[in-house]
Amino acid sequence: VGPRDDLAGLADGAAKRVVATGGGSADAAWVQAVADATGLPVTTDVHEPGQAAPVAEVCDLLQIPAFLARQ
After folding, report:
1. Cβ proximity of 40 and 18 under 8 Å
2. Which stretch of 27-36, 46-55, 60-69 has the lowest confidence by average pLDDT?
3. pTM of this structure
């Protein structure tokens, strides 16, 4: 489901996971709201090393971009 798609489309059960990207995806409260609203596991990434721990508490899969892994 893309950002312009109707989230009601998730109700048919076809979606298995939400992949959150963009600025909000590194905000733990936003990721938790997405998980609560959809009832689906959330995969996301972070943009700063300090965001990893709080976001990891609320998402199901946290991706660390390669440029952060090198730091």
Report:
1. yes
2. 60-69
3. 0.72
